[in-house]
Amino acid sequence: MNPLAVDPTVTAPLDDVMSLLAWLVTAAGVGGLLWLGASMAVSVRSGQRVGDFMESFLMVMVACVLAVTAGPLVAFIL
Questions:
Q1: What is the residue range of 72's domain?
Q2: Are 54 and 47 in contact (CB under 8 A)?
Q3: Transmembrane region positions (predicted)?
Q4: In principle, which of 3, 32, 40, 41 could form an S-S bond with 60, CB 3.0–4.6 Å?
């Protein structure tokens, strides 16, 4: 028997919270990309440059990558 093994009943509430947070982060990432796309469409329609949105796009994509990599890392640690 592994002395470092944790009983699954102990971590069940934490697993529930982590899965809820994972879904919320996914929804926030999708919502951010949709909002950014809508903003870009409105700016193109009004004749503004789209290049100004590249910084926002990069920030949203970095946040999505961090969120996607955080889930497996936490699952590996727990």
A1: 53-78
A2: no
A3: 20-44, 56-77
A4: 32
